[in-house]
Design a protein that fits this description.
Layout: E1 8-17, E2 20-24, E3 30-34, E4 55-63, E5 69-72, H1 122-150
Length: about 160
Amino acid sequence: MELAVGTIISGKVTAITKFGAFVSLPGGKSGLVHISEVAAAFVSDVHDYLTEGQEVTVKILSVSPEGKINLSIKQAQPQQERPQPARSARPQGGRPGPRSGGRSPRPAQATVAMQPPAEPSFEDKLKQFMTQSDSKQSELNRYMAGKRGSGRRRR
């Protein structure tokens, strides 16, 4: 039997390690379910979720040229829709804006999508660095001039 990536098949857990579980597949092959692919929740010990000899449904994630087969139990399960928290007091679309002072909020179609700020060019970054550097250098020069002029000279 040819094992194709993305195929969902059943197999039997043959061994459990601290990093995952080995699963016997049809055709005499076996694959590894990494600990991160055992369940949707955090798994600290694979024994909490699987036992040797257990029949499991797995999805083939990859097959290496050497024949190593990576499997997933959590991706073989049907996707469950994540429940959205009920937040009726907070408007949709992220953080609330400034207080409107009793005015009604703008209609949703009037909202403008915020775009991330453009990355400054190298020249802009260099100009900003030079400005900061000049400022710090002049501050240091004033400090050093004050130290030289105000101190008593030793003989």
